[in-house]
Please model this.
Amino acid sequence: MYLLILILGLCIGSFLNVCIYRIPREESIAYPPSHCTNCGYELKSYDLVPVFSYLCLKGSCRNCKEKISVIYPTIEILNGIIYLMLFIKYDLTFKFIFYSILASLLIVISIIDIKSKDVYSSTTILGLCFAIPYILIGGYLGEIRISNNLLGGIIGYGIIFLIILTTRGMGEGDADIAGICGLFVGIKGILLSLFLAVVIGGVVASIILILKLKNRKSEIAFGPCIVLGTFIWILFGEKLLSLYLNLFI
Model:
């Protein structure tokens, strides 16, 4: 079963690459079929096997030999590993299904944000569309409290929105990301996720400045920090919180 989940994650990761490339260009994610962006060569089924095709082709187009970015197999592997970790923690439950969907969506949002510093409404609206059935089904099954998750979304959005109003240091897309994450993880989850996001953001900014990759006035995408903080909560949050309480309280 673990292998099947990993393969599923890799295959969906391949589709995520299409979304990451086409959404910023406002192109359809369904048509035309996958093709080389350099020569237009339409990829065959054997060119689309996640990771394996990249290795067999030695990271280049079969037709024109143009180099293919290593980001493509990286996204596939990342999505596969996250699916596997979620399955190990949640088994084949409704939380696994919805958290997997959320993870894939957040990967798309994060990579686009890193590349373009933009968060597209088409992705955040999709996140909201998945959050609604998650809350309703979770509430019906007794797995979550509907009020807790709704407030989590409001608090997540509200905190980042207030920061935007007072500092102008973030974009409105960051508030949308925090709101969506809050709808999935609830009040406690979003508060810890945002705390972790600030810590991660500080570490990343420090490394960038030390290595002189950017200057102090350069923009650094904060959305991916919120996403990473949310992933940490979903996978390890309760253990981290328990550890913190045991150490300091």
User: Anything to note?
Assistant: The mean pLDDT is 90. The radius of gyration is 19 Å. The helical segments are 2-22, 52-56, 71-90, 94-116, 121-141, 146-167, 172-210, 223-248. The chain is about 70% helix and 0% strand.
